[in-house]
Specification:
Helices cover about 45% and strands about 10% of the residues. By secondary structure, it is of the alpha/beta class. It folds into 3 domains: about 260 residues, P-loop containing nucleotide triphosphate hydrolases (Rossmann fold); about 140 residues, Arc Repressor Mutant, subunit A (Orthogonal Bundle), CATH 1.10.10; about 90 residues, Arc Repressor Mutant, subunit A. The relative contact order is 0.09.
């Protein structure tokens, strides 16, 4: 018997039942009453009522969380959320936390740090240590001296006030007795109110944390405990192998799993402000591909000053090598090769390859057909990475990228293909043809499909001009510039300004 998995469909009507319960009904043929958006009844779960307003398009996920919270009152439960980066897993956990607190639960929430963290049980310590400090020294007495001694090497709150320093927790993933002590601790921390233990970004968890999760699935605490965990479900992430093993267990009625899919377009459109220019609205929806965090980040990308602490897309958990590799890849544009990334990032190839593994585990990049090339999972992420880089480093990286991608000096361009200066490209309003100075190749073919005005806009975009600056230079309205830009995207088959700049940089390298 496979583990129950809830896959959120792109279409379907969630019908309200008694006391907020819901059932999923498949939509009927087009034109029927069930298929009409105007006739879809509003759905409110007890969870969304407790938190004020439910996240858009997440009614079914909230129903699963609500049911898990209710059932955990009588026996320990686990509910897991998996999906791509920034799809809304943490938002759903926040809704669950608010509702549980309103219902009198004790809440402990933690997040795993960088991939391969060296702290044993890091995500559990992050969640539980403050709660253990509030319980006080009486907890150690209830645990018993042996378990208290074992756990004092894990939790700073339990080590405080001890006459002798506690020994560090063992790094051996087979530390069975320590894992059993952790299970006892979680049961004691539940008390009479029940414990909601929220663990986020579990794809980065250390081996001992994953071993403990495996133990808790097979031997849940004998207390009212709900463990809610979320992780990025990257198919090649080595850190998720233990979690996949857990999900493969048969006959685990105490565990529910939800795959959090991207939003349908109509739900994503509801997250955008009213009155937005239709062209910009459509570009945002296409670039975000139904990922709410990415949609918010793209919507706010043009606002200055940029506040990285308030950004919907967060890169701070990446290691220094992974971040530098991502920045170099964003400068190069899709697709990119590890060798060129190593030159632009000024890192050894071995470190870049390891960083690419981490970026793939994080769900940010993926192979482009074969292992010699990679691309960002969403092209828009490359633009957000580029905006977050330091200006001085970006300037140097762009120079290194041009040198790395330039043809050998022994093979100069033929005289008939002399370089066309940038000023000539942007000012040649009345000359035919504008693409005469472009080199041969697939990128030149794409650029040749652009009109004179579109070439001007594309080159100014590649030079770093904003829409407002392009409008002033070309004596156009910003809305007209956006229209030109949407046509450029369609003709070149791209979805972001970064890709336009990359094509101009490759197809017009000698401009």
């Amino acid at each position: 018997m496979a583990l129950p998995v809830v896959q959120v469909p792109d279409r379907g009507t969630l019908l309200a039942g008694p006391a907020g319960a819901g059932t999923l009904r498949e939509p009927g043929p087009p034109g029927t009453t069930e298929d009409s958006e105007d006739n879809v009844p509003p759905v409110e779960t007890a969870l969304s009522q407790a938190t004020g307003s439910a996240p858009v398009g997440r009614h079914q996920e909230l129903l699963v969380l609500e049911e898990s919270l209710r059932l955990a009152r009588t026996s320990a439960r686990i509910v897991s959320l998996a999906g791509e980066p920034w799809v809304g897993k943490s938002r759903l956990l926040a809704e669950l936390i608010t509702a549980a607190r309103g219902d009198g639960w004790t809440v402990a929430a933690g997040r795993a740090g960088r991939l391969g963290g060296a702290v044993p049980f890091e995500v559990f310590v992050d969640a539980l240590d403050d709660q253990l400090a509030r319980i006080g020294p009486g907890l150690a007495a209830r645990l018993g001296p042996r378990e208290a001694d074992r756990l004092a090497g894990v939790f700073p709150a339990l080590a405080a006030g001890r006459p002798e320093p506690a020994a560090a927790a063992p790094a051996d993933p087979d530390a069975y007795w320590l894992i059993r002590a952790m299970r006892t601790l979680i049961g004691r921390a539940a008390g009479g109110n029940g414990l909601l233990l929220v663990l986020d970004d579990v794809h980065r968890a250390d081996p001992l944390s994953l071993q403990l999760l495996d133990h808790l699935v097979r031997h849940p605490p004998e207390a009212p405990v709900l463990i809610a965990l979320a992780y990025r479900d990257s198919p090649t992430a080595r850190h998720l192998s233990s979690l996949r093993t857990l999900r493969a267990h048969g006959a685990v009625p105490s565990w529910r799993h939800v795959d959090v899919a991207p939003l349908a377009e109509r739900d994503a459109a509801a997250l955008l402000p009213a009155g937005l220019d239709p062209v910009r609205r459509q570009l945002l929806l296409r670039d975000a591909a139904g990922v709410p965090g990415l949609l918010h980040a793209l919507r706010d990308a043009g606002r200055l000053p940029v506040n990285p602490d308030a950004a919907s897309v967060d890169f701070r958990a990446l290691s220094p090598d992974a971040w530098r590799t991502a920045c170099a890849a964003a400068v190069l544009g899709d697709p990119f090769t590890p060798g060129l990334v190593a030159e632009v990032a000024e890192l050894p190839l071995e470190r870049v390859l390891g960083a690419l593994d981490d970026l793939q585990s994080e769900g940010l990049v993926r192979p482009d057909g074969h292992l010699r090339r990679f691309r960002f999972r969403h092209p828009a992420v490359a633009g957000l990475v580029l905006r977050a880089t330091d200006a001085g480093w970006r300037y140097g990286a762009q120079g290194r990228a041009l040198r790395a991608a330039a043809p050998p000096a022994a093979a100069p361009a033929p005289p008939s293909r002399r370089p066309m200066p940038l000023s000539a490209m942007t000012d040649a309003m009345d000359e035919e043809p504008l693409t005469a100075g472009l080199p041969d190749g697939p990128d030149a073919v794409g650029l040749a499909s652009l009109s004179r005005r579109e070439v001007q806009v594309a080159v100014l975009v590649s030079a770093g001009f904003t829409n407002q600056q392009i409008a002033g230079r070309m004596q156009l309205s910003p809305k007209t510039v956006e229209t030109y830009l949407s046509r450029i995207f369609k003709k070149l088959g791209v979805v972001s300004r970064t890709q336009v700049a990359h094509l101009v940089g490759r197809g017009g390298r000698h401009l």
